[in-house]
């Protein structure tokens, strides 16, 4: 009889954890000093330049859309959206690129470099790298079928990075639901802002534990799912090796921003443990309902995604508005 109460007890503990984190979370998501018309006079062509450059990048390789979107996410979860993720290591600065969630994983820095070069040639030292990355992420999503949202701008580039925060703030593929949601709440985001891996790929190193762990338990016996699992195992051997082999997060429509990802979660086919937890965890009280809603209502998913990514994009680094800058080269602070 006691065992029957275990899910209820865990659920109560989960709600208590959410309440606790909500109390201590930072207020970075509120009232950022950003506006839609920040560059209206100083660089009126900036949005057009970024859009045209991103269009070229996505036409060249549709996967580039996911690279830029992920860069934006990893930037905003560390010090706010201040371009710190773009900084290279130097003798005097330890960047975030070699942090555990980023090393051998983050790509797309060269895309931002090319866009920055084009913007600089038209509006030198006016538009921050942080703004370029934020706007480019929006355009990337649109170019692969996703929704439009307005992007408030006026961010400054930080003169610092945080290797330590990159290791602690960014959700990782094998984390449980409580840890994932706690990281969102800590930044002033919410449960409804979690889970949107509809484009992009994952490295074998990050999904090996999942496909050799509880993947079969969440499948439900579908023959097609079993075939896909066999393909995943051939891509990612259990004994090690092939750590950098990749597989799409959404194998049905890997280069299209849609709600197919949520159908996969319903089928128990989430590639990452952190994704499948949104639906299959005993603690998935609210997230399970969201997965079901978005799986059958694309418009609802698009609407919430637009709201959530604006909230995330509005996470600012207060220090950057005091001693920040507009970098000439996104990889290095100005001399």
Please characterize this protein's 3D structure.
The chain has 335 residues and is an all-alpha fold. The protein has 15 helices and 2 strands. Strands 1-2 form a two-stranded antiparallel ribbon. Helix 2 packs antiparallel against helix 4. The protein is globular and about 60 Å long. The termini are far apart.
What is the makeup of the main sheet?
Answer: 2 strands, antiparallel
Q: Helical element count?
A: 15
Mean pLDDT: 90
Taking the alpha carbons of the first and last residues, their distance comes to 68 Å
Question: What is the topology?
Answer:
Layout: H1 6-24, H2 46-60, H3 64-76, H4 109-122, H5 129-143, H6 163-169, H7 177-186, E1 201-203, H8 204-211, H9 215-219, H10 223-235, E2 246-248, H11 260-266, H12 273-280, H13 287-296, H14 298-313, H15 320-323
Helix pairs in contact: 1-7, 2-4, 2-5, 3-5, 11-13, 13-14
